[in-house]
Amino acid sequence: MIRSLILALCLLAAAAPTSPSASSSRPSVRTSSRSSATRTRSSRKCTSCVRDNRGRIQRSATARQSFKKSHPCPATGKSSGACNGYVIDHVVPLKRGGVDEPGNMQWQTKAAAKAKDKIE
Question: Per residue in 52-76, pLDDT tens?
Fold first, then answer.
């Protein structure tokens, strides 16, 4: 519950408009060229992550099952099966060095997951 609250606050802070007078030391990542934006995204990929044959970061089914056992679905209260309206999210994304362990997982609504994916 606390993780969800913290995530919601982070999403609100990220979505809040900044004043034009506020200066940022971080350069803008957005570009008008599609090929340039693609190069920027690909350079941020995790190069040390173990990947499957489709190029995706390999996930542990055991870690996912362990998370479900210790954290039942918020919608149904069940420790197995589908959890409609929710997904299992990594607090620290795998591509940013997060571990694929139950301690780095949380239940997240599908809408919040889509919003988080846009800023990650």
Answer: 899 888 899 999 999 999 999 999 9
Domain regions of the chain by residue span? 51-120
- DSSP, residue by residue, 11-73: HHHHHSPPPTT---SSPP---S-HHHHHHHHHHTS-SSS-B-TTSSBP--HHHHHHHHHHS--
Q: Which of 6-10, 13-17, 32-36 comes out lowest in average pLDDT?
A: 32-36
The candidate with the shortest Cα–Cα distance to 71, out of 58, 57, 87, 94, is 87
Averaged pLDDT for residues 88-116:
93
- The pairs formed by 105-112 with CB atoms below 8 angstroms and a separation of 24 or more are 105/63, 105/64, 105/67, 105/71, 106/3, 106/4, 106/7, 106/71, 107/4, 107/71, 107/73, 107/74, 107/83, 108/4, 108/7, 109/85, 110/85, 110/86, 112/4, 112/7, 112/8, 112/11
Burial class from Cβ neighbours inside 10 Å (0-12, 13-18, 19+) for residue 107 reads: buried
